[in-house]
Amino acid sequence: MGISKIVKLIFFFLIIKSVISCKEITKKEDKIITGNSIVLSETKEENTPQDKEYSQEKSINFVRKFYVLYLTDLNQGTKKCILNDYLSKNLIESVNNFNGNLIIDSQDYEKIDLNTLKISGTNIENVFKVSFINYDERTINVKVSTTDDSYKITDITLLRENVNFTYPSTDIVDEYEFDYLSYYIEPIGESKTGVVFNIEEDFEGRGIIFKKNQAFGDSFEYLCTKIQTKGELEIYYKENLGAEEYEYSGDSSKPLIIIYKKSNDFYARSSLIENGKEVKLKEE
Hints:
Layout: H1 3-45, H2 49-76, H3 89-97, E1 118-121, E2 127-134, E3 136-147, E4 150-158, E5 180-184, E6 195-201, E7 208-214, E8 220-229, E9 232-240, E10 257-262, E11 265-269, E12 279-283
Antiparallel strand pairs: 1-2, 2-3, 3-4, 5-6, 5-12, 6-7, 7-8, 8-9, 9-10, 10-11, 11-12
C-alpha cells in the first residue's frame, strides 16, 4: 500500500472520530439542558421558606411606607399620602366613618417621632403589628392583601388579646349615636342610688366609656371602641380608666356589651349586667 493511501485512511479515520465525538458532546449538552429545565421547573413550583420571608418583607415595607407618609402628613400638615394607593375602598369608608382616627387609634395627636415607628409580623398570616408613640404607645394591627405585585391594607383594628380579624368593619350608623345611656339595677326614689351602669360618648372623643357605679362594691370604668354590625352596636374593651383592682380580665376579642334598638328604645346584653340577660337602657 502506498504512503498516500495510508495518509488518506488516517485522515478519513480522524474525521469519522471527530464527528462521533461531536454527537456525543451534543447529547451530553442536551441532557444537561434538559436536566436544568427540570430543576428550574421544580424550583418554580416549590414555595420555599425564603419565598415566604421575601413576601412578608415586601408587605412589611409596604405598611412601613404607608405609615411613614401618613404620619409625615400629620406632622407637617401636608396631604402627600393618597389613601387609595394603600387602603382598600371598604377600609377607606370605615376610616371615614370611624369616631376618631382609626389609622392612628386616636382622636388627637401631637408631633409623632417616626423613629418610634415599628412594623413587625404576627402569628397570623398577612397580619402585621404597627406601633409608635403618640402621647403614649399606640399598637395597631393591619391586614395586607396581595395580588401579584399589588398590595392593599384591607383591615385595621386596635390591638386586642388573641386578635383574629373576625371583627366587623367599623361602620357607625347614625341611629346608634347617643350621649348617655343608663341601666339601674337598684334605683331608690329620685336619688337613683344603688347599682348603675352608664354607657356614654367620651367627651374627649376617644370612644365609648362603659362604667359601673356602686356605693359599695366592684365599680369599674372602661374606655371602649364601638363597631356596628348586623343592626347591633358592639362595644369592645380598650383600656381601664378606673381602679387597678377592677381591671377587666375577660376575653377582649369578644364584645364587652352589645347595644341594639327595638322601635325607639335601646336594649343591651352584657355578661357584666344581669348575667347577660337582655336589659332596657334609658337614654338621658
